[in-house]
Amino acid sequence: MSIQTSEVEALGSELGEAIADLPAYEEFESAKAAVEACEQTQAKIDEFERIRQEFMIARQTGTATQDDLEKLQSTQEELHSMATMEAFLEAKAALSGELEAVNDAISAPIAVDFSGETGGCCND
């Protein structure tokens, strides 16, 4: 491994540690733990996932109805309106905003959208 690669990896590790120390990251982790610990929220997540799966199967087989879609949307709205889930979604959005700014700072000097280009093949 070259010295430059080692330095870049070390900087990456420092960046990861700095991100983990962000208040937005700490709030995200706290909100995530609250969602995971709340039995009511977990039950609503399970219900939503079951209804979503049923809808996806119905859509694939051509039997999905507008009522099925409305039931899915209603269940999602109920889930998102729960206090624990609402706090989680707000924390997730705040963290995403901060991570987008980090991505922009990394991407600018190399003229590449770092997070968008790290997945595999090039986009010519």
Descriptive report:
The structure is a single chain. With 124 residues, the protein is mainly α. The chain has a single domain (12-103), classed as Up-down Bundle (YheA-like fold). The chain is 84% helix and 0% strand. The protein has helices at 3-20, 23-37, 39-61, 66-81, 83-110, 114-117. The chain is elongated, with a radius of gyration of 20 Å.
Short description:
This protein has 124 residues and is an all-alpha fold.
N-to-C order of helices and strands: HHHHHH
Superfamily (CATH H level) name = YheA/YmcA-like
The total of beta strands comes to 0
Please give the largest β-sheet.
none
Integer tally of domains: 1
Category from helices, strands and their pairing: mainly alpha
Overall shape: it is elongated
Quaternary state reads single chain
Q: In terms of per-residue confidence, which ranges show pLDDT below 50 for 5 or more consecutive residues? A: none
Round the mean pLDDT to the nearest integer and report it.
90
How much of the sequence lies in strands comes to under 5%
Assign the CATH class. Mainly Alpha
Rg is 20 Å
CATH topology, by name, is YheA-like fold
Looking at the overall shape, the CATH architecture is: Up-down Bundle
Calculate the terminal CA-CA distance, rounded to whole Å: 29 Å
**Helix count from the secondary structure assignment:** 6
Helix content: over 70%
